[in-house]
């Protein structure tokens, strides 16, 4: 096992020579050296049963401390950054799923200590420890951990030595009972921020755990001699039946959903939303609900509300029902009827409360097609015996859920990287350096969310085989202990360590738990316990087994290397932070000096070299120091060599080259950046801007063919983005969306190409402030890019892009619909602007209004009401003056279309020019 553990360190060392980010690879290597040393120290220290128990007690109590801090943070007593977020306990680990995995491993250790403890006071302490671990575990709200816990618990119970098996099971049942009793009250208290109530429920559960323990102890003392195995089995079966019955009751006994505001609480929307799928369009539905409502002191302060939103295939939402209950009700049955829209695919039903001193309660909700109660769906709002936070997490467990599908995407993308770097991997930290180049859609994660895949990415197949061998040795050693003649206490503790290691490793197969150093150390310490137990169980065999035995000077040398390297890296980090501070103070000379020191102490961090190069270039140009400018270029290339998958560094190189007249090199670097991070819209903006600006230069130089080539490349950007969106999974949460800047740059390039013979045309383009090509739909949502649609309750806007000629907009409803810009545009105050719309159509002019709105200033800035499209595409023009109170950069556009069947407006493009 020693050599396998050491070989894993070796795999990270080998990967240094192929690492895509040297600094990250060195960091990971140092981490694994630390893990190995922890493993070796534990296995060397734990030579007796007492030693093993001391270490396991320390591990269990440290986990208790983590859980207790998490519970205190949830109660609002302890303040610790990230310990309680979004109703989930993260504690000091600051990530709920990893906390759940850690607590699962700690629970296995604590249970094995409990079962093997010889003194009652120790078992009494462990009853509180286990209860605290499990209560905190429940409120991590980690669905994967919930699903996996029974499997790991079963492994623990089945593998325990016979004399401890029933103890471990019985003690655990006491823990479960205490936690289940306390959890509803504790969950309600932390949701309502009731500090004292939360602690009261925690203490009550702890007291129940202790009382159950001592009561069962006393009973077992009197009757243990008379209990036969058949009685034990019968009792277990009865317990399982009772537990199943209790679970069924808990999952089927509903409670009212209660929402309220105190008299002194400020007005705010408190709404619980519930999705309803499999809904038919253009169909009348009824929601039947039992309502209690307490309205406010003022007439308009209703107590309860029922809201219904219609969602189309693109998840665009339209409110189709608003029912506000102003009268006082006490458990009255109400029926609300509404009709779905022609484009309805699903619904979202909301139950609300808003005003101070009001309250609402909802229960017994049914949803069905009006006149056909056989189609009724029951909507469970809350459970009586399960905290709402937990019930919501349970109800959302399914393989189609976003977080599950997102993880599967991470895994597929990791396999792409492995395919490109199969043998030695990408080096430590390689995933977070390269995944942008391989991702299937735009997401941000520094981890693969699978330890085994991440290690495979970082160390290649060599590292994966070493990891498999390490786990193989761990399992073999554990099973050898269990099959040996060792003292049963050793076997019980070893199996607890084994179950904990398996739990932590198993959960880490689908999350990044072991990327957190503290959790990884916990696992390696368990490896050390298993190895030590194996040695004690088979002392003769282990005398001849391979064991890493190093002389004292080797330990000293390794320690010195770690200390010195850590000191240098820390010094580099410190100077880097100082440099950032100087930049914020606008003292670039001192910032440059600090970055020089940072890169001296830590020459492997690419950002130090890159930032130093930026400052050297600025100072060199200001002082006309050619040597410093040359050094800046060298440092910039060094930075790219240290982190060659960094699109930001390529972008900086491109900007530098363009600034210095190296136009082809600059464009090449920007194209490289788009390859390295294709789902980052900013790199496409930079590239399109560069294409257009360089095309202008070529036109001035008379290089029309080169200019036309660049304008074509610019237009191809939309096709590349469209292809990326086509390749993205259908369940991707979002697509790449064309931005206003990107559209403007590409549109300018298009105008350059159309006016290539006019050498001075490029001068006019500085006045083009907004452009929209309505034929572009790179995100494939059926709506022209830059725009989104909205309908009134009776509006029904349809958008169709016709053969790349124009976008046809038709409102088939009876109310108004709107198409408006997704992003704000920038107009100047007291300035004239001209709007050009290339359009055709047969919609009456009184059915269209084009609006220019601002978020600060007079509204609307302009309304164009006389829009009269002709049968043929033609340019319509209007001019307006912005007001003095307008704030630049906060404007948006909207076209209002009144409902009129079979009438349309066809828009090819829209431009806004500054006069």
UniProtKB/TrEMBL annotation:
Principal cellular location given in the protein's record: membrane
Membrane topology: Multi-pass membrane protein
Residues passing through the membrane, by range: 54-79, 99-117, 176-193, 199-219, 231-251, 451-476, 512-530, 550-570
Any one annotated GO CC term: membrane
Transmembrane helix among keywords: yes
InterPro entries named in the record: O-antigen_ligase-rel_domated, TPR-like_helical_dom_sf, TPR_rpt, WaaL-like
SUPFAM superfamilies: TPR-like (SSF48452)
Protein name in UniProt: O-antigen polymerase
Domain O-antigen ligase-related: 399-468
Gene3D superfamilies hit by this protein: Tetratricopeptide repeat domain
Pfam families in alphabetical order: Wzy_C
Keywords: Membrane, Transmembrane, Transmembrane helix
The UniProt record lists the keyword Transmembrane helix: yes
Annotated localization: Membrane
């Amino acid at each position: 096992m020693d050599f396998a553990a050491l070989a894993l360190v070796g795999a990270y060392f080998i990967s240094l020579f192929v690492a895509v980010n040297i600094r990250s690879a060195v960091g990971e290597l140092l981490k694994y050296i630390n893990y190995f040393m922890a493993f070796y120290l534990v296995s060397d220290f734990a030579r007796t049963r007492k030693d093993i128990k001391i270490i396991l007690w320390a591990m269990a109590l440290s986990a208790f401390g983590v859980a207790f801090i998490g519970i205190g943070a949830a109660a609002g007593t302890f303040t610790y950054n990230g310990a309680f977020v979004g109703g989930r306990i993260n504690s000091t680990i600051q990530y709920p799923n990893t906390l759940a995995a850690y607590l699962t491993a700690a629970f296995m250790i604590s249970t094995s200590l409990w079962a093997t403890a010889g003194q009652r006071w120790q078992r009494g302490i462990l009853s509180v420890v286990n209860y605290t671990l499990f209560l905190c575990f429940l409120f991590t709200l980690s669905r994967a951990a919930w699903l996996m816990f029974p499997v790991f618990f079963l492994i623990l119970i089945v593998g325990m030595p016979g004399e401890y098996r029933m103890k471990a099971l019985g003690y655990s049942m006491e823990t479960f009972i205490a936690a289940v009793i306390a959890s509803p009250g504790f969950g309600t208290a932390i949701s309502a921020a009731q500090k004292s109530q939360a602690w009261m429920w925690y203490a009550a559960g702890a007291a129940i755990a202790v009382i159950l323990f001592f009561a069962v102890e006393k009973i077992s003392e009197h009757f243990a001699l008379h209990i036969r195995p058949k009685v034990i089995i019968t009792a277990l079966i009865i317990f399982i039946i009772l537990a199943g019955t209790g679970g069924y009751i808990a999952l089927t006994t509903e409670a009212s959903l209660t929402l309220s505001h105190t008299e002194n609480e400020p007005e705010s929307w408190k709404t619980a939303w519930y999705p309803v799928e499999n809904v038919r369009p253009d169909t009348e539905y009824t929601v039947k609900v039992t309502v209690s409502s307490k309205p406010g002191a003022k007439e308009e302060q209703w107590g309860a509300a029922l809201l219904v939103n219609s969602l189309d295939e693109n998840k665009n939402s339209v409110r189709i029902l608003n029912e506000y209950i102003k009268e006082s009700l006490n458990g009255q049955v109400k029926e609300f009827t509404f009709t779905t829209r022609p484009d309805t695919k699903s619904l979202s039903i909301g139950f609300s409360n808003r005003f101070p001193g009001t309250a609402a309660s909802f229960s017994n909700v049914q949803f069905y097609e009006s006149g056909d109660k056989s189609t009724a769906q029951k909507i469970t709002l809350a459970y009586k015996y399960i905290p709402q936070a937990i019930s919501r997490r349970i109800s959302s467990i399914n393989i189609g859920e976003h977080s599950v599908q997102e993880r599967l995407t991470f895994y597929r993308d990791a396999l792409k990287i492995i395919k490109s770097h199969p043998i030695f991997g990408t080096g430590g930290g390689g995933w977070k350096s390269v995944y942008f180049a391989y991702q299937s859609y735009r997401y941000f994660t520094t981890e693969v969310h699978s330890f085994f895949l991440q290690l495979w990415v970082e160390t290649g197949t060599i590292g994966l085989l070493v990891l498999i061998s390490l786990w193989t040795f761990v399992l073999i050693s554990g099973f050898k202990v269990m099959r040996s003649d060792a003292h049963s206490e050793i076997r019980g503790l070893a199996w607890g360590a084994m179950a904990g290691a398996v739990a932590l490793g198993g959960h880490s197969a689908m999350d990044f738990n072991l990327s957190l150093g503290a959790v990884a150390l916990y696992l390696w310490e368990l490896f050390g316990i298993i190895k030590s137990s194996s040695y004690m169980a088979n002392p003769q065999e282990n005398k001849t087994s391979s064991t890493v035995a190093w002389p004292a000077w080797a330990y000293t040398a390794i320690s010195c290397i770690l200390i010195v390297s850590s000191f240098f890296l820390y010094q580099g980090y410190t100077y880097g932070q100082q440099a950032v501070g100087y930049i914020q103070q606008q003292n670039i000379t001192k910032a440059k000096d600090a970055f020089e020191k940072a890169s001296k102490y830590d020459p492997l961090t690419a950002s130090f070299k890159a930032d130093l190069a930026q400052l050297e270039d600025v100072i060199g140009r200001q002082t006309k120091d050619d040597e410093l400018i040359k050094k800046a270029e060298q440092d910039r290339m060094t930075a790219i060599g240290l982190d060659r998958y960094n699109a930001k560094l390529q972008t900086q190189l491109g900007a530098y080259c363009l600034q210095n007249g190296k136009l082809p090199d600059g464009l090449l670097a920007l194209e490289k950046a788009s390859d390295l991070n294709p789902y980052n819209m900013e790199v496409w903006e930079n590239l399109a801007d560069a294409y257009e600006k360089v095309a202008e230069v070529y036109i001035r130089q008379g290089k029309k063919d080169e200019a036309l080539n660049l304008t074509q490349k610019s237009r191809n950007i939309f096709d590349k983005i469209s292809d990326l969106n086509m390749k993205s999974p259908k369940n991707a949460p979002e697509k790449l969306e064309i931005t206003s800047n990107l559209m403007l740059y590409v549109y300018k390039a298009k105008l350059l190409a159309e006016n290539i013979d006019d050498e001075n045309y490029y001068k006019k383009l500085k006045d083009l402030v907004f452009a929209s090509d309505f034929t572009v739909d790179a995100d494939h949502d059926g709506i022209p890019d830059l725009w989104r649609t909205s309908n009134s309750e009776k509006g029904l806007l349809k958008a169709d892009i016709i053969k790349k000629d124009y976008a046809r907009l038709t409102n088939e409803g009876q109310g108004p619909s709107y198409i408006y810009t997704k992003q704000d545009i920038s107009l100047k105050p007291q300035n004239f602007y001209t709007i050009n719309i290339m359009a055709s159509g047969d919609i009456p002019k009184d059915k269209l209004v084009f609006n220019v709105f601002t978020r600060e200033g007079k509204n609307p800035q302009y309304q164009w009401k006389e829009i009269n499209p002709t049968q043929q595409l033609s340019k319509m023009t209007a001019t307006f003056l912005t007001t003095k109170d307008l704030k630049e950069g906060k404007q948006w556009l909207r076209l209002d279309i009144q409902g009129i069947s079979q009438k349309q407006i066809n828009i090819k493009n829209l431009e806004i020019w500054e006069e």
